[in-house]
């Protein structure tokens, strides 16, 4: 019993520190412990908690951990398994003891998190139809259980903003990100949304608004323990400097963002975006076209590893620019 709770808490800690590889190893240990249980699998209880609770947790953890290390098929597999088990638990008559309890609220929350992760996966891999289907499920779940999902509205508008961004309609993305920011329930989520929002501002040439975010939060985020947020502020600054034609400063900031991600698989998407930005900087500087080509090809490799369709597309667009093609030929 204590081993299970200890494993769960340790996995949560590892995920919070982005140590996904170690978390996956611990998930395997947790699975082994659960598998060793004797008796009817669905009716074994640890005090008030059924064994299925921990099974769902392993599916949830696996979905979360495999996504950032670019093991996309496995993340999808575990995500779908988790949703299937939750749906069975919440609808099957023999599980009526769960309905309306704190356990059912947990399951609803876990389903929401799994759906959110599956949306991110399908958006980044360019499977927009699938992403939209999961967004619809997410909205439906929120409408049915909004009292149990206090931060749900912010997440919904965040994924809608990302969906609009992938469709290259940044004005719609901005509207959703602004709404998400207004309804965000904790600080780190607000920072993440503001990074997305600032990137959308840059795409619509609203440089002053992106600049306002940098001025307001850069000092705090430089020291933030969350590497995604820390790399994110440098990314926004670097791209802002690019738009302001401060190319040398842009290189410094984008390289800093890359150094924070430090080749980690869990940060491939952000690293690819930074590399694309860096490639664009070198592309603007006439004598450095070969460097631009090399950097953009590195971004392509990263995008391929993480199945990041849109970063890959951005790299290809820059690589196929007339200026770069002429320099290579």
Automatic annotation (TrEMBL):
One of its GO terms (cellular component) is nucleus. Keywords: Cell cycle, Cell division, Chromosome partition, Mitosis, Nucleus. InterPro entries: MAU2, TPR-like_helical_dom_sf. It holds the Pfam family Cohesin_load. It is found in: Nucleus. One of its GO terms (biological process) is chromosome segregation. The keyword Nucleotide-binding does not apply. Belongs to the SCC4/mau-2 family. This is MalT-like TPR region domain-containing protein. It comes from Arcella intermedia. The lineage of its organism: Eukaryota, Amoebozoa, Tubulinea, Elardia, Arcellinida.
């Amino acid at each position: 019993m204590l081993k299970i709770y200890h494993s769960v808490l340790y996995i949560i800690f590892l995920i919070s520190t982005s140590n996904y590889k170690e978390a996956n190893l611990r998930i395997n240990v947790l699975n082994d412990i659960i598998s060793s249980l004797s008796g009817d699998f669905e009716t074994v209880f640890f005090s008030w908690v059924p064994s299925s609770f921990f099974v769902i947790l392993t599916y949830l953890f696996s979905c979360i951990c495999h996504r950032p290390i670019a093991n996309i098929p496995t993340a999808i597999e575990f995500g779908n398994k988790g949703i299937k088990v939750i749906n069975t638990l919440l609808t099957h008559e023999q599980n009526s003891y769960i309905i309306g309890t704190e356990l059912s609220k947990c399951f609803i929350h876990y389903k929401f998190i799994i759906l959110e992760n599956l949306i991110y996966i399908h958006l980044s891999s360019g499977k927009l139809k699938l992403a939209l289907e999961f967004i619809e499920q997410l909205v439906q779940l929120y409408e049915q259980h909004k009292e149990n999902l206090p931060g749900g509205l912010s997440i919904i508008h965040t994924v809608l903003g990302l969906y609009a961004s992938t469709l290259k309609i940044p004005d719609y993305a901005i509207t959703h990100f602004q709404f998400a920011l207004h309804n965000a329930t904790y600080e780190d989520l607000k920072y993440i949304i503001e990074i997305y929002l600032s990137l959308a501002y840059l795409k619509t040439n609203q440089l002053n608004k992106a600049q306002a975010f940098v001025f307001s939060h850069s000092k705090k985020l430089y020291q933030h323990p969350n590497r995604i947020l820390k790399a994110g502020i440098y990314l926004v600054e670097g791209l802002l400097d690019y738009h302001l034609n401060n190319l040398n400063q842009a290189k410094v900031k984008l390289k800093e963002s890359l150094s924070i991600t430090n080749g980690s698989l869990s940060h491939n998407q952000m690293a690819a975006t930074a590399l694309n930005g860096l490639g664009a900087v070198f592309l603007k500087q006439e004598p450095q076209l070969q460097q631009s080509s090399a950097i953009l090809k590195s971004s392509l490799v990263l995008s391929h590893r993480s199945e990041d369709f849109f970063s890959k597309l951005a790299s290809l667009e820059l690589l196929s620019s007339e200026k770069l093609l002429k320099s290579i030929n």
